[in-house]
Specification:
51% helix; 5% strand; 185 residues; single chain; 8 helices; two-stranded antiparallel ribbon; globular; mainly alpha
Length: 185
Amino acid sequence: MALDRRQFVSGTGLGLLAFQVGGAVSWLNPRQARAQDVPLRVLSAADARIVEALGEALVPGAAAAGLTHYIDQQLAANSVDSLLMIRYLDVPPPYAAFYKPCLASVEAAAVKMHRHPLHVLTGTQRDDVVRAIQRGNPDGWEGPPAPLFYFVLRSDAIDVVYGTAEGFAKLGIPYMAHIVPPSNW
């Protein structure tokens, strides 16, 4: 899917992202992409389960807001246009090389701590895993530092859940964008 800058800017200015649906470009927000079960292009089904479970533990509402589709779409897009937090931390692309080993390590930590994959753990058990990655690298961790991954994924989840006028309203904060987008995501 090749988009020129004008197409990208016009779509993202509306709070929409370009998703590949049935061979064509569709402008959807992450929540819509999740609801339409848009096929993932970079993340595997196992990765998606981990993102949904961990994202929900970090920021309630992240799964329904489409965090997995947001991250997948951004990983599939040109890295210079990425809206993922990792881009702003001077980590070199490709960004999938950051996310994928961390997701696998989170899953390994969940299994080691509670003998089950993250997505089947209780809320308290997921919180144990979150605290472990927040504090440092759990035993056997592979990939970038766990606290960095925690910060990045939490920031991405916050962006998806609260980075809109609707999200600001949920927080009771006036949305005072310099340039108000013509529509909500």
